[in-house]
Amino acid sequence: MVDLEKLRALVELSRLGTMSAVADATGYGTSAVSQQLAGLERQLGVDLLEAHGRRVRLTPAGRRLAAHGKTILAAVTAAQLDLAEQAAPSGVVRVAAYGTAMRRHLIPALAEIADRYPTMSLELQEYEPPETLTLLDDDGIDVGFVYDYTLVPRVWRHPHTLLSTSRVVLAVPADAKVADRISEPSDLDVFRDTPWIANSRDTGDDELAARLCALAGWAPDIRHRADDLDLVADLVLAGQGVSVLPAESQEAKRVRTVALELGNVERRMWSVTRAGTQTWRATTALIELVRSHVVSQYPADVPLSPEVN
């Protein structure tokens, strides 16, 4: 039978690349990690590592076992959590979310969580989607709330659930010479020489602007960056450029907006979890509370049957 701690060391080596990094991640010394991996090789009778300069790397057999190991360890975690499935949600849930989700959905849910589940608590961190997904990879959080665009979909590596969708509008300066809706690519030509405002910590806005403008045959001039939507709105109000905003957001109500009717242009909110913890009672309770809050705020924009993977 494969020792799970030894298998975990192999999986961590495949992820982190060096023995010292595995030692830092697991709390073992470098020599202890080396001994675990050597023991795993003896146990299986297969060479899992090979010398590569001053370091080691996985052999083809080591890579195959590491791939199996990720699945095995996730299944073990899920099984352990399943034993406590009937218990009330409890414990600390480490959460990362983008600013808008934190402000409008997570913070309002804190009082309800304290009332319903007194033995459950949250550790909240504000991060943009790419940072949140990296934290999941590094076991830095248990659940994240992220967004993407229908025209710039993310590639998911984690269990995920669609929580809501919202139309995207173009925020423009008050004096922009444009109609109230953009229904043809040529309608974007009035912004050919206008700067665009994009996110400072995620490339999703850049790619959305590029794909929209590509329909008209040109590339956007992305000049300003801010991840706080209030700052984006401030820049638009100051006449410094145009940007995409969720139609239902408070920031969109502060500025002049133009409807985008160039296909299905929507922003989607997702929950993502570490593999094996998606059935943890505290995680599912949190996700359901957040989704209920989203539905109560924007009932028309939430799909009746959210996608779950």
From TrEMBL:
The record places domain HTH lysR-type at: 2-59
The superkingdom listed in its UniProt entry is Bacteria
* Presence of the UniProt keyword Transcription in the record: yes
Pfam families documented for this protein? HTH_1, LysR_substrate
Q: Which UniProt keywords apply?
A: Activator, DNA-binding, Transcription, Transcription regulation
- Which family would the database say this protein is a member of? Belongs to the LysR transcriptional regulatory family.
UniProt protein name: LysR family transcriptional regulator
